[in-house]
Design goal:
mainly beta, five-stranded antiparallel sheet, globular
Amino acid sequence: QIKMKYKQISFYFFRGEEFPDMDSIITEKKVKRRCDGYIEVKYMGIKRKTKVVTMKNEIVEWNQIVDIPATQPAVSQKICFVVKDEDAADSDDIVGSFELKIDDIYNGHYDNFTYIDIYGSPINKKGGVYDQMNYNAEIGSRWNGRILMKCKVTDIDSPIARVRNIPKEEE
């Protein structure tokens, strides 16, 4: 008989870099690009998101931890991450996405600081195949920035889903 072990996976999101200006029609302009970025983490019906941070000098600094409960053996192998740009007037724009395999996380592939590339659809393209590109980095055709992050896995009796700031001693 297989005994289920409970795990707390902590995703440390430090910063995002070089996100595109999702609000502009002229997209390749490098001066004064704007992005109010956040990351949405989805796993097994649980969804949590970082705070929204305005990009300055092509950098978004979150310094937050998203905790997600998991099990070993894993019930589902993929954890999905969607980077979004908050829009007050309209629905939020998708910058791009990435997925991590839970076995890679358990095996320590993301224990140290790692840059993860974000891929999505061409800017200002929505619907149909473009939405598929935004939610599936494997078919995303445009590099839309990168995220500096790491993961920590802890054995725990009662894992919880939450978002918290990175303590100063861990930055």
